[in-house]
Amino acid sequence: MQVRMSAEPQPEDVQTDDCMTSYTHIYSPDLLKDQVAFITGGGSGIGFRIAEVLMRHGCDTVIASRNLDKLREASEKLRAASGRRCLPVHVDVRRPETISDAVDETLKQLGRIDILVNNAAGNFLCPASALSFNAFRTVMEIDTVGTFNTSKVVFDKWFKHHGGNIVNISATLGYRGQGLQVHAGAAKAANDAMTRHLAVEWGPCGVRVNTLAPGPVSGTEGYRRLGGPAAESTGAFSSVPLQRAGNKTEMAHAVLFLASRASSYVTGAALVADGGAWLTSPNDVATLLGYWSSEKKRDE
Ligand code: HXC
Ligand code: NAP
Q1: Distance 237 CA to ligand 1 centre (A)
Q2: Do residues 61 and 51 lie in contact, with contact meaning Cβ atoms separated by under 8 Å?
Q3: What is the enclosing helix (H) or strand (E) of 229?
Q4: pLDDT of amino acid 141
Q5: 115: helix, coil or strand?
Q6: Can you give the residue ranges of every domain in the chain?
Q7: Per-residue CA distances from 254 to 174, 245, 262 (Å)
Q8: What distance lies between CA 242 and its chain's CA centroid?
Q9: Residue 88: is its pLDDT beyond 70?
Q10: d(Cα 293, Cα 300) in Å, to the nearest integer?
């Protein structure tokens, strides 16, 4: 088949957890003016870029995760690049009391929450036969229980009476039973159901709940852990309809759509932003076992 290269440009991105050196707005720079977004896992990877892009649209942010030193460094970069406020807070999404303290601090310092992005997650390649009970439970607890815990605390303390927008960062892993991913695929599939349940229950309070399901996104921990660089070097992305991995800014733009009035009548929906990857990518357990054992050897 003749491949015609798309003329559509990719938005700016940088591979590291740093802000972009230049940025071209797609939406109005005032789209989220004076709103506040609470972003779990906002100190690195996709979450960092989501924070940056939301801030470049007038939003203040709270970035919440376990490693406060990392968050402090990230918040300095984000403030410098955007001129908006960014509050780093310690949260382990498995522990509701840490979320409760962080939300209280947010409301004390920033006065409101308009957007919640449930982005925190843990993942690694591992065949089910080698996965310990605790490993499966750990991923379910971070990804699924953590998403419920954070949504419920933010709803009880603010969204119930003020409305708001929740965006859950999911994955397409469960759509075709991706090999070596039973833990994360099961966790994200549960989150996709949670999106619909909460959209139904909380819609009447003015809360929209949607899912973004990224495909492989370069410059991220997830990409490194799941064999992205190896797939890149062997030309595996030629099987993706759009012929490439995504970048973090593309994910942030999709969140911006779901979290803003651009999508005011959208709730309970899942937006897949993967260049069509899940439709055509190989799901080859032998290749994945190859990545897994070479990673293991490197760690030993
Ligand atoms: C098998 C593993 C493992 C691995 C840990 N475990 N790493 N099992 N392979 N590579 C097991 C441990 O042996 C232990 O089980 C259990 O998991 C809990 O491990 P801990 O280290 O005690 O857990 P914790 O400190 O809570 O750390 C959670 C973590 C860690 C998920 C294991 O990797 C983490 O903090 N990750 C956050 C960053 C991250 O994963 N980013 C990528 C997200 S990407 P035992 O039985 O020994 O006690 C993503 C991509 C999705 O989600 C889709 C991409 C297309
Ligand atoms: P990442 O940088 O490792 O992001 C995960 C974040 O979650 C980290 O900042 C981590 O910070 C935080 N976190 C982990 N456990 C936590 C806990 N118990 N409590 C609070 N925070 C916790 O990886 P990423 O690749 O950018 O992934 C971001 C999101 O995109 C995830 O939901 C992932 O599943 C999804 N995704 C990624 C890809 C991809 O290609 N990268 C593809 C599909 C979906 P601390 O270590 O400080 O806690």
Answers
A1: 26
A2: yes
A3: helix 228-233
A4: 99
A5: strand
A6: 36-299
A7: 20, 15, 11
A8: 21
A9: yes
A10: 10
Per-residue pLDDT tens over the stretch 108-133 = 999 999 999 999 999 999 999 999 99
Ligand 2 pocket, residue 88 CB under 6 Å: no
Ligand 1 neighbours (beta carbon < 6 A): 121-124, 126, 132, 134-135, 138-139, 171, 173, 184, 216, 221-222, 225-226
Q: DSSP letters along 119-132, please? A: ---------GGG--
pLDDT tens digit string along 179-208? 999 999 999 999 999 999 999 999 999 999
Helix then strand count (H, E) for the chain reads: 12, 7
Percentage of the chain exceeding pLDDT 90: 92
Average pLDDT over residues 91-100: 99
Closest CA to 86 of 126, 121, 51: 51
Query: Rounded to an integer, what distance in angstroms lies between the CA atom of residue 87 and that of residue 184?
Result: 29
The one-character DSSP state at 217 is B
Q: Whose CA is nearest to atom 18 of ligand 2?
A: 92
- Report the residue among 131, 138, 224 best suited for mutation to probe ligand 1: largest number of ligand atoms under 8 A from its CB: 138
Q: Which among 225, 232, 266 has a CA at the least distance from the CA of 246?
A: 232
Q: To 10 degrees, the CA torsion angle through 289, 295, 296, 300?
A: 160
pLDDT at position 3, please?
A: 54
User: Closest Cα partner for 152 from 202, 110, 211, 108?
Assistant: 202
User: Nearest bound ligand to CA 66?
Assistant: 2
Tell me which amino acid residue 21 is: T
pTM of the model: 0.98
The domain covering 36-299 belongs, at the CATH homologous superfamily level, to NAD(P)-binding Rossmann-like Domain (3.40.50.720)
Q: In what order do the strands lie in the sheet with 60-65?
A: 86-90, 60-65, 36-40, 115-118, 164-169, 207-214, 270-273
